[in-house]
Amino acid sequence: MKILKSAILGILLFTLINAEDGKKYGSELTLTEKTDVTAILEKPAEFDGKKVLIEGTIVGVCESRGCWIDVAAKEGYEKIRVKVDDGVIVFPLEAKGKTAVVEGEVYALTMEQEHNCASGEHKGEEKSCCSESEKEKKVYQIKGLGAVIK
Amino acid sequence: MNWRKWNNVLHRDIGYLAVGLTLIYSISGIAVNHVNEWNPNYNITKDTVAIASSADSSETNESLIAKLQNEFNIADTLKNSFRSAPLKIQLFFEKKTITADFEKRSAIVEVVSNKPILRESNFLHLNAPKKLWTYVADAFAVSLILLAITGMFMLKGKNGLSGRGKWFVIAGFIIPVAFLIIYF
Question: N or C: which end of chain A has fewer CB within 10 A?
Answer without folding.
Answer: N
